[in-house]
Amino acid sequence: MSTGVGDELEAAITAWLADDPDPATQLALVHLRDRARDGDPAALAELTDAFAGPLTFGTAGLRGALGPGPARMNRVVVSRAAAGLAGYLIEHGHRGGRVIVGYDARYNSERFAADTAEILAGAGLRPLLCEAHQPTPVIAFGIRHFDCVAAVVVTASHNPPQDNGYKVYLGDGSQIVPPADAEIAAAIRLASWQSLDALPRSSDYERLGDELVDAYVVRAAALVADSPARDLVWVHTALHGVGTEVVTRAAASAGFTAPHLVDAQADPDPAFPTVAFPNPEEPGAIDLALARALEVGADVALANDPDADRCAVACPVDGAWRMLTGDELGWLLAVASLSAGVQGTYACSVVSSTLLADLAAAYGQPSAQTLTGFKWIGRVPGLAFGYEEALGYCTDPVAVADKDGITALLRVLALVARLKAEGRTLADLLDDLARTYGVCLTEPLSYRVADLSLIADAMTRLRADPPSRLADEPVTYVDLADGGAGLPPTDGLLFTGARVRAVVRPSGTEPKLKCYLQVRLAPDASVDLPVASAEAAALLARLRSDLAAVLGL
Description:
CATH architecture of the largest domain: 3-Layer(aba) Sandwich
Radius of gyration: 24 Å
Shape: globular
CATH topology of the largest domain: Alpha-D-Glucose-1,6-Bisphosphate, Chain A, domain 3
Number of helices: 18
Largest sheet: 6 strands, mixed
CATH class of the largest domain: Alpha Beta
Strand content: 15-25%
CATH superfamily of the largest domain: Alpha-D-Glucose-1,6-Bisphosphate, subunit A, domain 3
Helix content: 25-40%
């Protein structure tokens, strides 16, 4: 038989079809195979990519496009991941331990979660499967609340609609880090030698209903009990995710008025029909929230990403509504915590602003810089508050050692209400920080690619010929792959000058090369802020232009 597929790929497809329990992915695979046999180059390319190798399990767990094949998210891949996780947990002495399993409202999330619970139970663990979709931070809270040895959340967070993912936490409440990721990956490879029919399954597991959310809401509301101001008008959008119900419950329990919802985005919808990408960082994602804020005369507008572990804030600044940067919101939440006397270490990732360290020092508190991701921030000893510029905030590390967009939202509501009672705004507080610590501007610069080799090539070029000047200022160069800046080795480059700073790294969850830019001017209590801000903005534009030219993407 003449075929454009090739014997090896044909054999892999046949074996996959025999193992796949999902009629939908079986049908999709047969359709792709038949098109490829007929000479369709797009179908052959898709098949080749889907069977090029297994979806990599790392510190972010699994994340990828839905579809058939070992390099896609499907029931076969998820079942093998669950079996590998079970093997790892049992090998580490956790047989009979509780594992909370949650999921968002994306395509197949509920089915993937049920497969996980059945396989964990069949292996001798005690899964606690959520009865309904829940925000990721609610599941992270459940780890310690129910004394679990691990957790699984089926979510792709803010990725595009065609994606799904598999996030794993251990019993300390944080996402996995080395060497656990490699050990779980090895256990998954071992489990993959078996057919799915050979994996023991059991329906003998517990289901979690209201008791999980009830406990989370009580804890969240208590965080702002000491801040009595409650007079404010606010808007909320869940960006078609799962945050609306828990956000409104937590806000009501804390005594805030109900939000004005962005109705078109309030209910879960895995198609995310009103946004190009369901990420509040993306241009246009919060446009409907801004329109609603103007309509109702709001003091503040807040957005969560689809699994509600991130929080974005928009408010009037210099007479116009705009979204605060992740760093700006990090400073505001840190100052609120510091001024309330919360002691401990204030931490942020290496790609976030350097201003947090100065804020902590001004209040006599230690600070720490970590690798990117809350799997690192959440593990900082004595953590009081942690954030990363990508809109992730940990404001209650004792209960949730991860980013939590819902408790962050409550902290923002309390801060806005207190400032409003004083006749002030978030913009006024940001101005205070600029006068005391110097104008600081940060900005992300990212390149989304279809070919991942472009990212590797750009990093190679940059390492081979790093710039000695950026924005007309001398910069020093540190290769973070060598363990520079006091951090464990990671694929990234750090450029630092007297007033400019840039970090360049590949994204860990998306096909992007990401750059993190910062400009800081010297503090001056008598500074003319509009003039200084314009100077900083011009410097930031030069930094962005120079780095873009160096990268050549």
